[in-house]
Amino acid sequence: MFKIYVQNKPLFLSTKATGEVEEYMHRPDTIFIDDLNASSVRTMLQQLAEDDYYAGVFLHHNLDELLESFKSQLTLITAAGGLVHTKDNDLLLIFRKGKWDLPKGKLEEGENLETCALREIEEETGASPLLIESPLHVTYHTYFERGVHILKESYWFLVKADERAPLKPQVQEDISECRWVPVDELGRYLDNTHASIIDVINAWKKKLPENNN
Length: 213
Description:
Blueprint: E1 2-6, E2 9-14, H1 20-25, E3 30-33, H2 38-48, E4 55-59, H3 63-72, E5 75-85, E6 90-96, E7 99-101, E8 104-106, H4 113-125, E9 130-145, E10 148-161, E11 175-182, H5 186-190, H6 195-207
């Protein structure tokens, strides 16, 4: 299953209506489509832009084909970033454009995802030294920029910091604050963040030892 956030609304691309997808199928404000063609992809994106709809479900037997169909209708940007944590599980958050967020940025030509993630974290927060531990999650969200409908494909990594390093926000990227947040204080920050960022943090929580017993 893939999940794309269209204006912060979840769009599920799936082969079957089970689990989380099934829950949304029963909502009257969910758009459901199971016929893949260029017109149906455009219809889904257009209707999710309307206030009357809360979510979308698109079923198809080939998930990769389905995702590629959405990519073909949008301008794709690839990005990488990280969920940075200390040994005490303090997390590194940034405050950008009125929302708490995680550091990430666009992949540059000739750059691999891991290098991009570390570069963007250091540029946006000043945190160093850092070590990538493992891939964590991939998120998709859409937005408009200069009249262009963009799909951002963001690759997230779990990144270790030896300590709570001094931080310096990259104000040129609209970051006004960087903060180390203890995990037990995380809730109030998640009340003001993007839905895709909550997915990244939930992916990290699933990796915690107490959730793998």
